[in-house]
Design brief:
alpha+beta, 3-stranded antiparallel beta sheet, 4 helices
Length: 205
C-alpha cells in the first residue's frame, strides 16, 4: 500500500493479511458502493441478508475514520479459535513537523510520552529510521451505533502508537493500532511490529 499527495512525500506500508482497508477517501454513493464491496470481500461466503446486516457497522466505522483526517484506516478481523473474531483498527495519520532531524524528533516525542504515567514510551530504530512508540490501556465507551446490540458499551482498549518522523521532509507519520481483544494483545503487537518494519519513505518524484 502506497500513499502520496501533492505536498507530502510518498510512503509505503506492508499490511498483514486479515486487514481490510476502509474507503475513507470516498463519499456519497461511491462510499456506499465501496462499503458494500468491502463487506462482501470480508464475508465472501455470506449471503445478502448477512451483508445487509453488517454493512451499517462498516459504514459507521468508515464515517468515523473519514472525519479524523487520516491517510489510511483498516479493520483487522481474525478468528480467535473459538468461533469468535478478534478485531482491531489500524490507522495512519500524517502531520506537519518542523524537526531538525528525524532522530531529534523521535527522542523529543519519546520524552513527551514518558511524562504521561499511563503510557509506556520507547525510542526505537526502525529500518526506515528512528521512531518513538507508546503503549497504553484504557476504558472506552462506544456509542450504540458502533455496537452489535445497538446499546453503548464500555470495553478495555489497548493502544500501540508509533511516531515516525519522515526522513524525506518535515512531516510525522503516526501509526495507531487499537483493539478491545486484549487476550490477543501480543499477536497484535507482533503485527504492528511487522507494519513498522515494512514502513518505507520515498523521495518525491
Amino acid at each position: 500500500m502506497s500513499k502520496e499527495t501533492e505536498s507530502i512525500p510518498p510512503l509505503s506500508l506492508s499490511i498483514p493479511e486479515g486487514f481490510h482497508e476502509l474507503p475513507i477517501d470516498t463519499a456519497g454513493e461511491a462510499r456506499e458502493e465501496a462499503v458494500a464491496a468491502l463487506v462482501q470481500g470480508v464475508y465472501p461466503q455470506g449471503d445478502p441478508d448477512l451483508w445487509k446486516g453488517v454493512a451499517p457497522l462498516f459504514a459507521s466505522a468508515t464515517e468515523a475514520m473519514a472525519g479524523a483526517d487520516l491517510t489510511f484506516a483498516a479493520i483487522g478481523l481474525f478468528g480467535d479459535g473459538a468461533e469468535g473474531v478478534a478485531q482491531c483498527a489500524l490507522t495512519l495519520a500524517v502531520a506537519p513537523s518542523n524537526h531538525p532531524t528525524a532522530e531529534a524528533a523521535a527522542h523529543g516525542i519519546r520524552e513527551i510520552l514518558a511524562r504521561t504515567s499511563t503510557v509506556e514510551a520507547q525510542y526505537v530504530d526502525l529500518p526506515c529510521g528512528p521512531a518513538a512508540t507508546g503503549i497504553s490501556i484504557s476504558e472506552v465507551t462506544y456509542d450504540g451505533r458502533y455496537t452489535t446490540t445497538g446499546e453503548p458499551a464500555t470495553v478495555r482498549m489497548g493502544r500501540l502508537q508509533a511516531y515516525v518522523p519522515f526522513p524525506t521532509g518535515p512531516y510525522l507519520a503516526v501509526l495507531t493500532l487499537e483493539t478491545p481483544a486484549m487476550d490477543h494483545w501480543e499477536n497484535f503487537a507482533v503485527m504492528m511490529g511487522s507494519v513498522l518494519t515494512g514502513l518505507e519513505f520515498h523521495e518525491a518524484s
